[in-house]
Amino acid sequence: MSTALLLVDHGSRRAEAHESLMSMAALLQKMRPDLIVRAAHMELAAPDIAQGVADCLAAGAREIVVFPFMLAPGRHAAEDIPRLAAEAMAGRPGVALRVAEPLGVHAKLAEIVLERTGLTL
């Protein structure tokens, strides 16, 4: 079974935000060449979630794991992204869809906060 990882952020009109998500997708693809890795935005920029799902399917995905690339399980991560992903999958039998939890609280993220602020352990 070919598995796809679809990173989804909120979306922004700023090119830097789009490039950041695409860079993360490229990094993940390099780390896991066995996965199909794509990125999409919930709103405000292309590709949207429907296009991201279509891109995963076109690459041969039979399972799509949607990852809300957000810190907290707010409304977008908990409701909007799962709904938009399910809508994009409508009428596509035989393809599994799973929406993962957002980044949340994690020791590795705490290390990054300390590193970025110059307050390392």
How would you describe the overall organization of this protein?
The chain has 121 residues and is of the alpha/beta class. 43% of the residues lie in helices and 19% in strands. The chain contains four helices and four strands. It has a four-stranded parallel β-sheet with strand order 2-1-3-4, sandwiched between helices. The longest helix has 17 residues, at 15-31. It is globular. It starts with a strand and ends in a 5-residue tail after the last helix. The mean pLDDT is 95.
**Could you list the spans in which at least 5 consecutive residues all have pLDDT below 50?**
none
Strand order, sheet with most strands: 2-1-3-4
> By helix and strand content, what is the structural category?
alpha/beta
* Approximate shape: globular
Give the mean pLDDT. Answer: 95
Note the run of SSEs as H and E: EHEHEHEH
Strand content: 15-25%
Distance between the termini: 41 Å
Q: What percent of the residues sit in helical stretches (DSSP H or I)?
A: 40-55%
Rg for CA atoms: 15 Å
Sheet bearing the most strands, described? 4 strands, parallel
Feature tags:
4 strands; 4-stranded parallel sheet; 121 residues
Short description:
The chain is an alpha/beta fold. Helices cover 43% and strands 19% of the residues.
